[in-house]
Design goal:
Elements: H1 3-19, E1 26-30, E2 36-41, H2 44-47, H3 54-62, E3 72-75, H4 81-89, E4 94-97, H5 107-112, E5 116-119, H6 123-135, H7 137-143
Parallel strand pairs: 3-4, 4-5
Antiparallel strand pairs: 1-2, 1-3
Helix pairs in contact: 6-7
C-alpha cells in the first residue's frame, strides 16, 4: 500500500468524524507490509471522552499486537503530545502525517527518538482542519488543551 493510499484511509476516518459532529482528525495503523491493523477518528465529542483522539482510536481498534516495531501510524494531523507518547511508548516505528500546518505537534520529538516521520502536506487535510477551526474555535482549543 502506498503512502497516499494509507493517508486516504485516515482522511476517510476524519470525514466520518466530522459527519458525526466531531473533530475531523483520522488515523490508521498499518503493519510493515502495509496491512491495515486498525483505524479510527477523534471521538472526544461523540463519546464525551477527552482521551479518544484519532490515534488512540486506531490503536485500540488494532487490538493487541506482539510488537509494534515496523508499524506505521498514519494521521491526518501532526500528533499531539498525548498521541506522540502513545507512539513512543509502544515503539511504533513510523508516523505519516497528513499536515502539520494547522497544528505542529510532537513529531520533532518523535524524530529525535528514532521514529521515522513523513509529512505529506496534504491540501485536503489542511483545508478540512482550517475550515473546522474557523467554524468551531472553542471546540478546537478544547481539543488541544488551550483556553
Amino acid at each position: 500500500m502506498t503512502a497516499e493510499e494509507m493517508l486516504a484511509v485516515a482522511v476517510e476516518e476524519a470525514r466520518m468524524g466530522l459527519a458525526e459532529g466531531g473533530i475531523p482528525i483520522g488515523a490508521a495503523l498499518f503493519d510493515g507490509d502495509g496491512r491495515l491493523l486498525g483505524r479510527g477518528h477523534n471521538r472526544r465529542v461523540q463519546d464525551n471522552d477527552a482521551s479518544m483522539h484519532a490515534e488512540t482510536s486506531a490503536f485500540r481498534n488494532a487490538g493487541r499486537q506482539r510488537s509494534y516495531r515496523g508499524t506505521t501510524m498514519v494521521t491526518t494531523l501532526s500528533p499531539c503530545w498525548y498521541c506522540s507518547g502513545l507512539v513512543r511508548q509502544f515503539g511504533i516505528s513510523n508516523v505519516l502525517i497528513g499536515e502539520a500546518t494547522t497544528f505542529y505537534g510532537g513529531h520533532d520529538w518523535l524524530a529525535e527518538h528514532g521514529v521515522g516521520i513523513t509529512i505529506a502536506d496534504n491540501a485536503e487535510c489542511v483545508e478540512m482542519m482550517t475550515s473546522f477551526i474557523a467554524q468551531h474555535p472553542e471546540l478546537w482549543y478544547e481539543d488541544i488543551g488551550q483556553d
